[in-house]
Design a protein that fits this description.
alpha/beta; seven-stranded parallel β-sheet; two-stranded antiparallel sheet
Length: 321
């Protein structure tokens, strides 16, 4: 699946990331991302629910001949409301979500359809088989998985080849390196790190005094975003700033360049509502970190004890350990 070096995570434009500009401004920014060469845009049914897909469809459908819009299924949504903590990847649900997502995204085919979270009640073979049928019917082009372990990847891949796996991955969360990334390299599967700046934290604009109380920001529920955790983890941001200062890079660019140096099959999807941040993120692709640079960064960050889990317990149970 050929895509730009960096993709764009649409989620935070109007869901889970606090106050945002009006819809016209968001659409202009998405157009500016396309004009700057971004060809991978990521959304999901559950973001809103639905409002994020609707935004992506309105802004990006006209560019469908030159970009890929990816979306996801797998959470239980009833009458337009997300049922917190509940999953649903039954074949009939997958089909229904695919049809609804196509309408909201204003597309004839979904370029890449991810299972958002593993549903323990539905065998992964049944999930993969359903997506395979959708591919044969011309409604979906490719199959992806999110936050899963190696066994699940292999079992799904045996039924329907997996194009990409999406998981959190950044200098503060390197768990995928242990098993997932080697397996993906072996199988020829791409990797899409979401929250590559740790939900904005690695960009350096967040500290212990930042409040996430807009009613549209899930960071106020995340253990890593308590004032105590933010205060302790700022040491990581300082490592990025010190490293970047002598190389003409911002901390955010250092974090993204580190990800890009970890493998050619890795495509981070940072999101933003600001043109300045979009341009800053995209310029990260112009910096090539060598093996010594990567080792230096990793060594310095490894000296810091990261404070706070990435999810509260009920959400942590939905991701691979």
């Amino acid at each position: 699946m050929p895509v730009s070096t960096l993709g764009f995570g649409v989620m935070g434009m109007n869901y889970n990331r606090g106050p945002h500009p009006d819809r016209a401004a968001l659409i202009r920014l998405l157009h500016q991302a396309v004009n700057r060469g971004v060809t991978l845009f990521d959304t999901a049914e559950v973001y809103g629910p639905h409002v994020n897909e609707e935004l992506a469809g309105e802004a990006l459908a006209r560019f469908s001949h030159r970009i890929a819009i990816t979306t996801k299924f797998g959470h239980r949504i009833i009458d337009g409301q997300y049922v917190a903590g509940e999953l649903d990847s039954r074949p009939a649900t997958i089909r229904r979500v695919a049809e609804a997502s196509l309408r909201r995204l204003r597309l004839d085919v979904i370029e890449l359809f991810y299972q958002h979270r593993l549903d323990p009640a539905v065998p992964i073979e049944d999930v993969a088989g359903t997506v395979r049928e959708l591919i044969h019917e011309g409604k979906v082009k490719r199959f992806g998985l999110c936050e899963v372990g190696v066994d699940t990847i292999r079992r799904a891949h045996a039924v329907q080849p997996v194009t990409a796996v999406q998981s959190e991955y950044h200098l503060m969360w390197r768990e995928p390196e242990k098993q997932v990334l080697p397996a993906l390299a072996e199988l020829g599967i791409g990797f899409v790190p979401y929250s590559p700046l740790n939900r904005g934290f690695l960009g350096g604009d967040i500290n212990e005094h930042t409040r996430f109380d807009s009613g549209n920001d899930n960071r106020n529920t995340l253990p890593r975003f308590t004032p105590e955790a933010l205060r302790a983890n700022l040491a990581v941001v300082e490592v990025l700033n010190v490293f970047g200062r002598t190389r003409g890079m911002t901390g955010a660019q250092v974090a993204l360049a580190w990800l890009l140096a970890k493998g050619q099959n890795i495509v981070p999807i940072p999101g933003t509502t600001k043109l300045a941040h979009l341009e800053e993120n995209l310029r990260a692709a112009h910096f090539a970190l060598g093996a010594t640079d990567v080792a230096t960064l990793e060594q310095e960050v490894s000296k810091i004890g990261i404070v706070g889990e990435r999810y509260p317990p009920e959400q942590q149970r939905q991701v691979a350990s």
